[in-house]
Amino acid sequence: MGQLAKQSALYFNLIFVCSSFTIIFPFYPGVSESKGIELWLVGLIFSLNPIIKLIATPFLGRIMFRIGRKLVVVASIILIGSSLLVLGPIEYCDKATVIFLSVLSRLLSGLASACAFMSITSIFVTDYPDKVVTMLGRMEASIGIGYTIGPLIGMSMYAIKVIGTLVLFGLIIIIFAFVAWKMLGEFRPLKIDNSKINSLPILFKPRIFLTMLMGTTYLFSYGLLGTLLETHLRNLGLDSVYISLCFGLQSAFYLCTSIVAGIILKNANERVFLIIGLGLLTIGYSMLGPWSEIYPNKLWIVIFSLPIISIGQNFVCSKNYIVFNIPYMQKSIVIDYGYARDDIIDDHICSYAVTFNAFGEIIGPIYAGFVSDFLGIEVCCAIASGATGIYFLAYIVGSGILYDFVKYKRREVATEDFEDNNSSDKQ
Known about the structure:
This protein is mainly α. The protein has one domain (3-187, 197-426): MFS general substrate transporter like domains (Growth Hormone, Chain: A, Up-down Bundle). Helices cover 83% and strands 0% of the residues. It is built from 16 helices and no strands. The protein has helices at 3-22, 28-34, 39-67, 69-87, 95-127, 132-154, 157-184, 200-203, 206-235, 240-264, 270-288, 299-322, 325-335, 343-375, 377-398, 401-426. α9 (206-235) packs parallel to α14 (343-375) and α9 (206-235) runs antiparallel to α15 (377-398). The radius of gyration is 23 Å and the shape is globular.
């Protein structure tokens, strides 16, 4: 098949991965609580997905070179569907069985996520070098759609129960895997000029490392919300249907903001996006608690924090980490640090990006579960707000944006002086 079919299969894969991640947010914490599972354990179960992704990613890069990226993409689709089928009967199981099925489901989904993001990012970066920004932009749109429809699909549990929702969606995904094999066709072989290059020193270059941390920040925010938001809103008296709607609206706002931001701020410096995003996340977390030293403890404050967090997530990741920051890091490696362009370096950048994402997914749920259980949701969100604020200041200093701004101003002054002197000489 042609390029349209191939790209469509990849985008649908991303939609399925991300929707399977958020489909359980509206009901899983509630089901777990009804089985006597504590919130800290829910956070730990949520974190198993990225832990497996973190462990699998370094090995997956080597395996992918041997078995081919197509097989890795199709395997991710089958694993996604299987993770949902495994979780289906949790309403009818005892506590120990629910924990076992949840752990198994998260292990499968972690492998699926690692396979999907590693292979698809590599494909877009290496197979479409002239259209990498366009391809990654569409990739981000697919991710946004997946995060948006996940909670909406989860709402169908009120009509066909949890088991009906998860089994139906899981079977659809597995059936799609066989269709995707035909749609994907063939990918170009990777050109590796120096397979023995040590890319680890590249990772710790300041501009690269600080940019990589944006993926951690982004996925941390999703883990935080997924673990505590349902419980938090229920404690404030919100009905379950409206809680699911809050998740859907938060993701929908993220997607819409992604489109609008791309149009309005498409010519802005990449690092400006990141700074704005970190500032908004800092404010959003303080309202999510809400932090009683600043805001009243009202439901509307918490709900109003969700679009602010969505915009922050969007600026930190949507128009930066994927669409701008991978190309930005590719450019910085060559221009700022003097490395030659090579497919293996690009592949390592994609691998590091998945790894840093996994760190955020691990830290977010564990942090939210433990700190909320032992210190309360307000303290949990206040600490998250403070830590993000510190990172906000560190990025301004360490990313070189202040240095570039000062250098630009000096160049402007020098140009004006030159023009003035030239004008005086003519007179």
